[in-house]
Amino acid sequence: MDTILQIKDLNVSYGSVAALKGLSFDVKAGEIVVLIGANGAGKTTTLRTISGLVKPKKGEIIFEGKRIDHMEAHKIVYLGISHAPEGRRIFGTLTVYENLVLGAYTRKEVDKNTLEWIYNLFPRLKERSKQLAGTLSGGEQQMLSVGRALMSKPRLLLLDEPSLGLSPTLTKIIFDTVKQIRNNGVTILMVEQNAKAALKFANRGYVLEVGKIVLSGTADELSSSPKIVEAYLGKK
Q1: What whole-number distance in Å separates Cα of residue 24 and Cα of residue 16?
Q2: Is residue 234 packed enough to be buried (19+ CB in 10 Å), middle (13-18) or exposed (0-12)?
């Protein structure tokens, strides 16, 4: 598989606090890659830096052969990277449909086939298309956040904590949908604290601790690692 994203020696600081310290990894086209780590490990900062919301002090981010580490966020969306952030960040006073339309701002017009595909992925969004987004349940808002990110037709989708605050049933629905999205040709880089669930369907993973990668491997390798089992999956 071709490499779609390369992170090379990435350093990010918030004032005097180093959030990422020489981070390097890659994502291959067609993969689901998960970033695992405790709060404060640098997972969200990694996604925000890739999408242009945070600028690195040092290092390179290469997407499909092009450096994007000092590119403006909206230009990165045009290139084919979309970000569904932690906390959903939907527009509560707009309808579900209006939120989805905002996700297509890089397009001259709303692609009806893309909209229909999203409605097929998340039938609940079609049912509630005229409903104010702020009245949706937490699970429905997460569906809307992912759907909005897909409206720009990305080749790489960044997902930050898609299962946060969801019941086990809704978590399974979200993760099953993530697999469908990948099967439709979208590569996925995901931050997820529910490591046990994420490693069941991811191809590979990286473990972050205080801004550095301390372990990497296939999902099976990480699932069977004693260190990962003890720290993130629960002792067997």
Answers
A1: 21
A2: exposed
